[in-house]
Specification:
heterotrimer; A mainly alpha (213); B alpha/beta (268); C alpha/beta (266); B: 268 residues; alpha/beta; 6-stranded mixed beta sheet; 4-stranded antiparallel beta sheet; 11 helices; 22% strand; C: 266 residues; 10 strands; 37% helix; globular
């Protein structure tokens, strides 16, 4: 996976993001497993808790797995264009409605951020203090969040009518203008990865997969 | 030909009728202006004329809408969309959000109709040509000016190949240049045989654009006639509609005892 | 007194929205700023209450540099009504919505109640004081946004396209509000695309194009025939009264009233 990341040019960002994402869980995993895992070899003690070698071993294994999961998800997220992904899914059979919801959600976030900024400006122009202390900021929650929610909701009706007028309500498949290009090398890479996965599962099940300790 | 006859219409969950006793006809190639005070039912009338009320938003319509001889009553919204479309004043809410370029944005409608790709492309090209948007086809729909975005929204509607286009305050959020662009585009549309219903406050715009004007007040049509006649009506302002500048000037001249014909000869 | 000195504002992407503007606006002036979208009008006025800070140049309010104050502090001097009322409405009732601004400005009890009542009356919303804002139609919500800004009793009021979307009655109301604010000695600055509204209600018109001011004067001066080429360069047309007056050789008659006066005098 890391070589793939390096090829895609996102290696450093990927490692950093995955690390940050797993860190909170990692801390709790380490604390819990190291100190509460039943085991024989005690490394050190803190009060009523004792850290065992087995605990450390378990924690290490779990951390590696967590890191692997987050890096793979992160790699996917960083290298895939969401629009291309969703549209390709639709070409392969995903309902156009799901595709729309997925894409519209992606689109909705930057639009909402922009809306929130305008709202913040408008409320600040009415004297809302956004640079003050905690109390001031708490008072600002409703004037800031309120219009974001309310105006989004009031727009929903007009948006959905505008969609209906463009036949979004029509059931059935559609012929897409877009096509995600596939190449032989990508096909081969997918086949190899799939094969490796099957092999890894088979080896694990038959117990011959090498284990760390 | 769009023929609408409304005995009454009310929104779902409301007891009050928002519209009552309306008879409206849009002939092919006709541009009809719709004016009236706010909250008189202009927007509701636009939705009913496009069939979206009640087909999409529900409510109870006592009356009939006939689109080119076909009753709208049994049609589903996507079937209606190929006959009559409605555009709104905010170009942002009409953007699908799915397209990276203006071309794709306009193509979304035909795509949704399940058409084959060559047909989708043909209709899109046609809509672009009708509104002369060739220069914009590669642009990001999010990065257009208000006027351009509104034109793209109208083109997106045209790609459905409707015979009837209803627009609810299309120039409300536009600057004078944007307003002019939209006005010209609408004229070109009518020349091609599309019938148009344009709701607007800008009576100067409608003055130069429409053959007929209808006035809505309190949920019903109170005037329906040729543009010049309706706009010259002395009760127009009491009805909540600002007369066009030339009418205002003429009245002011008459009120001051000056022969209004002096003004006519001076149209710059 | 507002003083804008060599103001330049460059947005993050590199757009020079305001490219060197110097202006002075006296207390109690009624000024309209016009120009096509993208000419820098909105960018310019947002410097008056600190929402935008200059890239170069200064904005002085009564001699004090606006950059030295926070937006919330400047709101006590300059109130800005945004074009889209739905970008600020959040309260449960019309009255509560109008109270928000003046409350932030420090008004309490009798003074607050008075400011709110006055604003509600001016915008025709007194009978709707207990109504939920979203039960009002769009144009009345716009009036609500205007009321909530008026109630702040600031010496300077900035209106961003106040007549957009309003019917005839709404426009009349806004014209009356602009006149009343002016007679109360408050400075009114409005961005508008409605040349008739501008010529009728404002004593000074500033025309912007591509970030600079190309015309600045009374409506009679700005809409005079020799200025039409400049207006055309930014896709603006003078009001019909001005065109008619020029065609009849009556001099500059930017409003209906002036035109009729000139005709009667002939």
């Amino acid at each position: 996976m890391l070589p793939a990341a390096i090829v895609a040019g996102v290696a450093r960002r990927l490692v950093r993001v995955s690390f940050l994402l797993t860190l909170p869980i990692a801390i709790s995993v380490v604390l819990v497993s190291v100190f509460t895992r039943a085991g024989e070899t005690v490394l050190f003690e803190i009060g009523p808790f004792d850290a065992t070698l087995e605990g450390v071993d378990f924690a290490a294994q779990t951390l590696v797995r967590l890191f692997a999961i987050s890096t793979s998800i992160g790699l996917f997220g960083m290298t895939t264009d969401p629009r291309a992904f969703v549209l390709d899914l639709e070409r392969r059979g995903l309902s156009p409605r799901f595709a729309f919801v997925a894409l519209a959600t992606l689109e909705a976030v930057p639009a909402m951020v922009e809306r929130a900024q305008v709202i913040a400006s408008a409320q600040r122009a009415r004297g809302l203090d956004t640079e003050g202390g905690v109390a001031a900021r708490l008072r600002g929650v409703l004037p800031l969040a309120g219009p974001v929610v309310l105006s989004s909701l009031t727009e929903v009706e007009e948006r959905s009518l505008a969609l209906e007028v463009r036949a979004f309500g029509r059931p059935g498949r559609r012929h897409l203008l877009w096509q995600v290009p596939d190449s032989t090398s990508q096909f081969i890479a997918r086949a190899v990865l799939l094969g490796a996965l099957v092999l890894a599962i088979a080896l694990r099940l038959t117990g011959t997969f090498p284990v760390l300790f | 030909m769009l023929e609408l006859s409304v005995e009454s219409y009310r929104y779902p969950g409301y007891a009050r009728n928002v519209l009552h006793d309306i008879a409206l006809r849009l002939g092919d190639g006709e541009i009809v202006g719709l004016v009236g005070p706010n909250d008189a039912g202009k927007s509701t009338l636009c939705l009913v004329a496009a069939g979206l009320a009640p087909a999409s938003i529900g409510g109870v319509l006592m009356g009939t809408l006939t689109l080119d001889g076909t009753p709208a009553a049994g049609l589903k919204t996507h079937e209606l969309a190929e006959r009559a479309v409605v555009g709104f004043q905010n170009p942002n809410t009409q953007r699908s959000g799915l397209a990276a370029t203006v071309f794709e944005e306009i193509a979304v409608g035909p795509m949704n109709l399940g058409l084959e790709v060559p047909e989708i492309v043909a209709r899109t090209r046609e809509a672009i040509a009708r509104l002369r948007l060739e220069a914009l086809i590669e642009r990001d729909p999010q990065r257009l000016s208000g006027g351009q975005a509104q034109l793209v929204a109208i083109a997106s509607l045209l790609a459905m190949r409707p015979r009837h286009v209803i627009l609810d305050e299309p120039t409300a959020q536009l600057d004078p240049e944007g307003t002019r662009l939209v006005g010209e585009a609408l004229k070109a549309l009518a020349d091609d045989g599309t019938s148009l219903l344009v709701a607007e406050h800008k009576t100067d715009l409608l003055d130069g654009l429409c053959q007929r004007v209808v006035v809505i007040d309190g949920g019903t049509l109170v005037r329906d006639g040729p543009t010049a006649e309706v706009f010259a009506d002395p009760e127009l302002e009491t009805l909540g509609v600002e007369p066009p500048a030339r009418v205002r000037l003429r009245r002011a001249a008459e009120a001051a005892g000056i022969d209004p014909r002096v003004l006519e000869g001076a149209r710059a | 007194m507002i003083e804008i000195q060599d103001l330049v504002h460059v947005y993050d992407g590199g757009t020079r929205a305001v490219d060197g503007v110097s202006l002075r606006i006296g207390d109690g002036e009624r000024v309209a700023i016009v120009g096509q979208n993208g000419s820098g009008k909105s960018t310019l006025v947002r410097h008056l209450n600190g929402l935008l800070r200059p890239t170069e140049g200064r904005v002085l309010l009564d001699g004090v540099d606006a950059a030295s104050k926070r937006v919330a502090q400047l709101a006590a001097t300059v109130a800005l009504a945004f074009q889209d009322p739905d970008r600020q409405i959040f309260a449960g009732t019309v009255k509560a919505e109008v109270e928000f601004g003046p409350r932030n400005a420090g008004l309490r009890d009798a003074a607050l109640a008075e400011a709110v009542d006055e604003a509600l009356r001016a915008t025709g919303l007194e009978s709707d004081a207990g109504t939920k804002p979203y039960d009002l139609g769009y144009s009345r919500r716009k009036l609500l946004a205007l009321a909530s800004v008026m109630a702040m009793r600031t010496p300077v009021v900035v209106l961003d396209e106040p007549t957009t979307g309003q019917d005839a009655r709404g426009v009349r109301r806004i014209e009356a509000i602009v006149r009343d604010l002016g007679s109360a000695g408050r400075t009114v600055i409005a961005i508008s695309h409605d040349m008739r509204f501008v010529a009728d209600c404002f004593e000074r018109v500033i025309v912007m194009r591509q970030g600079v001011v190309i015309l600045d004067g009374s409506p009679a001066q700005v809409f005079a025939q020799d200025r039409w080429p400049e207006l055309a360069s930014t896709y603006l047309e003078p009001p019909l009264a001005a065109c008619t007056g020029a065609a009849l050789g009556l001099g500059s008659t930017p409003t209906d009233a002036r035109l009729i006066e000139a005709l009667a005098a002939r």
